Amino acid sequence: MDPLKVLVVDDEPLARERLARLLREAGCTITGELENGVALLQWLKASNKTGVDAIFLDIQMPGLSGMEVLAKIPDGPPVVFVTAFSSYAVRAFELAAADYLLKPVFEDRLEACLQRLREQLVRRLSPSELRALLLPPARFPIRVKDGEIYMELEVVTHFELEHDRVWACRGASRYLTRWTALSEVEQAFPDDGLLRIQRHLLLRPRMVRGIRPASVGRIKVMVAPRVELTVSRAMTPRAKECIRP
User: Fold this and answer.
1) Which ranges does the record mark as transmembrane (predicted)?
2) Is the pLDDT reported for residue 135 higher than 80?
């Protein structure tokens, strides 16, 4: 039997390199290693989809999540989700993808996955079935006069702590939340990729429109026209990784 030709997509370089090594050791041919979902969509558009037998796709990545990417390529090669978050609905993975692997990936579980791919046991779902598996938008309450309304997380650029109050920011606009610490926001949305760029600032990296140098060792990130946030020197390297194209 010819070796499986696989594509590895993960925004973490070490995780991507380790999985590619394990796949090679299992007899697979690596056709490419990509950093995020946008790069995967571009790769699929530019290449022949029949040139790869399976895609090993990370779930939580800057920009498009693995689930969002899968919904956009229902006619693409079989997808194996690779995730560090066991809290995801495993059954949904099994329905939407060929298989799933929990990080760190071990050889015996990977071999079972590869055997499953070789035997082509899984039916691909229709576009409507895949869209139905996407989680509803995350929401949270914000204070308005004497009541509250719900805001979707996807429109928020960052969160700001001020005098033990957390404000949800949409560019220059700020909305008061129930939270009193940024750690509460992180606990509420553990899979969104939130990044603490200052003690009082929590950034959603996917909302960054551009970056520029600030003082030595720091950068400023633009989240809206005329709205820039300064990243601490300690977090600048991590921020650059999270917001790269």
Assistant:
1) none
2) no
